[in-house]
Design brief:
It catalyses: 6-hydroxymethyl-7,8-dihydropterin + ATP = (7,8-dihydropterin-6-yl)methyl diphosphate + AMP + H(+); 7,8-dihydroneopterin = 6-hydroxymethyl-7,8-dihydropterin + glycolaldehyde. The chain has 2 domains: about 5-120, 2-Layer Sandwich (GTP Cyclohydrolase I, domain 2), CATH 3.30.1130; about 120-270, 7,8-Dihydro-6-hydroxymethylpterin-pyrophosphokinase HPPK (Alpha-Beta Plaits). About 30% of the residues lie in helices and about 25% in strands. It contains 8 helices and 11 strands. The protein has helices at about 20-25, 40-45, 55-65, 70-85, 135-145, 185-200, 240-250, 260-270; strands at about 5-15, 25-35, 90-100, 110-120, 120-130, 150-155, 160, 170-180, 215-220, 225, 230. The longest helix has 15 residues, at about 70-85.
Length: about 280
C-alpha cells in the first residue's frame, strides 16, 4: 500500500503525569506514515486528488496541542483516531510519538510510543423472531450507523427463514451487513451486545427465540480466537440464512480458513437435500 511519511514534526504541548509537565509543557516530535492510495494523484498531478500533507501537519499540530493527557499512549491513540476520522481517504496510520525531554532523571536520548491504527472491514449477520421483528432490526442497524467509529454501512435484503437448531419457535427475519470500523474485534462485539440489550435481548435458550441477534461473520481477513469470540463465525458455512444475504454483499469473499468463496459455500449448502 502507498504511504506518505511525515518525520520530526515538532509540537510544543502539555502532556505528562507530573504537574510541572502540564504547567510548563515541552517539545514533542510526531512521525507519521499515512497509508493512502496515491495512484490517482500520481496520474493526474492535481492537488485535489492528493492528501494535502501541509494541511495534515497543521491538523496534527492543532489537535495534539488541544488537549492535555497524562500518558503519551493516550495522546498517540487520540491523534491516530482523529486523523482517520478527519481524512476519509486514509486507510491506516502508523504514528510514532517522541518525548525526548521526559523527566526521567537519567541520561537518555528519547522515549517514544508507536501505534498502528486502521479502518477494518467487517461483515455481520443479524436476525429476529420475536415481536416486531423488522422494527428491532431497523433500530439495531440505525444504532450501528450512528456509532462514531463506524462508517459505510451496507445492508442486504431481509429474508424470512425457518429456525435453526431449536425449531420450536417462530420464523426469523435474517440479513447481513457490511461496515468499516475503527473498533477492534472485542470492542465491536461489546458494542453489538449493547445493541442487542437495547432490543431487550434475553440469552435463555441456545439458538432459541430472540428479539435481536447480531454476530460477527468476518473481520478483515483475520482468524481470531478468544474466550468470547471466534472469527470467522464458527458455523456460518452451514447456515443458508447467513450465506444467502452475505452472498448479496460479497459473493467472492474467500473464507480465510476454508478457502472457498461465500458463493461457493452457499451453493454447497443449497445442494444438500432438504428434509
Amino acid at each position: 500500500m502507498d504511504y506518505i511519511t511525515i518525520t520530526g514534526l515538532k509540537v510544543f504541548a502539555h502532556h505528562g503525569v507530573l504537574e510541572e509537565e502540564k504547567k510548563n509543557g515541552q517539545d514533542f516530535y510526531l512521525n507519521a506514515k499515512l497509508f493512502v492510495d496515491c495512484h490517482k494523484a500520481g496520474v493526474s498531478d492535481e492537488l485535489r486528488d492528493a492528501l494535502n500533507y501541509a494541511e495534515v501537519c497543521q491538523f496534527m499540530t492543532d489537535e495534539f496541542k488541544s488537549d492535555s493527557y497524562d500518558l503519551i499512549e493516550k495522546a498517540c491513540e487520540e491523534l491516530c483516531r482523529k486523523l482517520l476520522l478527519r481524512y476519509e481517504q486514509l486507510e491506516k496510520v502508523e504514528l510514532k510519538l517522541d518525548k525526548p525531554h521526559a523527566p526521567i532523571g537519567l541520561p537518555f536520548e528519547n522515549v517514544s510510543v508507536t501505534m498502528e491504527r486502521a479502518w477494518h472491514r467487517a461483515y455481520l449477520s443479524f436476525g429476529s423472531n420475536m415481536g416486531d421483528k423488522k422494527a428491532y432490526i431497523e433500530k439495531g442497524i440505525q444504532e450501528i450507523k450512528e456509532h462514531p467509529l463506524i462508517r459505510n454501512v451496507k445492508v442486504s435484503q431481509l429474508l424470512e427463514t425457518k429456525p435453526y437448531g431449536y425449531v420450536d419457535q417462530d420464523v426469523f427475519l435474517n440479513g447481513c451487513l457490511f461496515l468499516e470500523t475503527l473498533l477492534l474485534p472485542e470492542e465491536l462485539l461489546a458494542f453489538l451486545h449493547e445493541v442487542e440489550q437495547h432490543a431487550d435481548r434475553k440469552r435463555v435458550i441456545v439458538w432459541g427465540p430472540r428479539t435481536l441477534d447480531m454476530d460477527i461473520v468476518f473481520y478483515d481477513r483475520e482468524v481470531y480466537d478468544s474466550e468470547d469470540l471466534i472469527i470467522p463465525h464458527v458455523d456460518m458455512q452451514n447456515r443458508e440464512f447467513v450465506l444467502k444475504p452475505l452472498a448479496e454483499l460479497c459473493p467472492n469473499y474467500r473464507h480465510p480458513i476454508l478457502g472457498q468463496t461465500v458463493k461457493q459455500l452457499l451453493d454447497q449448502v443449497q445442494s444438500i437435500p432438504q428434509e
